[in-house]
Specification:
The protein is α+β, with helices and mostly antiparallel strands. The chain has two helices and five strands; from the N terminus they run H-E-E-E-H-E-E.
Length: about 140
């Protein structure tokens, strides 16, 4: 499984939202996940490593009324708290036999990114930190 797919599946656990990867369709209540070019890597002496990868998540929410904007703000705030608390309440699922997730965190709060006729697109930054065991050659 790719790290991008792992993050998408992780986010889809929150209120059964749908996450599109490298794409965000038109219309309200659409969400897209995009990998950022930043990657941090810490090598251990035995050859294993700890890797942090960064992502941008975009949420298209209805914005016709003031009430819709308030609901979107509340929903996004609850999503941030859910991500913040997840690692304290649950174990992160393993990616595969050689990679295990240590942390997923919000590194940039949801903020308005783009305004469209009836929608606001919010942008949020995430990071995932995982350890990877080297393959035996």
């Amino acid at each position: 499984m790719t790290i991008t797919k792992y993050i998408a599946e992780f986010l889809e656990k929150y209120e059964s939202m749908r996450i599109h990867t490298n794409h965000m369709p038109d219309g309200s209540d659409q969400n897209g996940l995009f990998k950022s070019p930043t990657r941090d890597k810490l090598e251990y002496n035995e050859g294993n490593c700890k890797i942090t990868e960064h992502f941008q998540v975009y949420f298209r929410q209805g914005s016709v009324s003031d009430e819709e904007r308030k609901e979107s703000d509340e929903w996004l705030e609850k999503l941030v708290y859910w991500i913040d608390d997840y690692g304290f309440i649950y174990e992160y699922p393993e990616i595969d036999g050689k990679r295990s997730v240590k942390d997923i965190k919000v590194t940039g709060l949801p903020t308005p990114f783009d305004y469209e006729q009836d929608d606001i697109v919010y942008q949020m930054s995430l990071s995932i930190t995982y350890e990877r065991e080297r393959e035996e050659f």
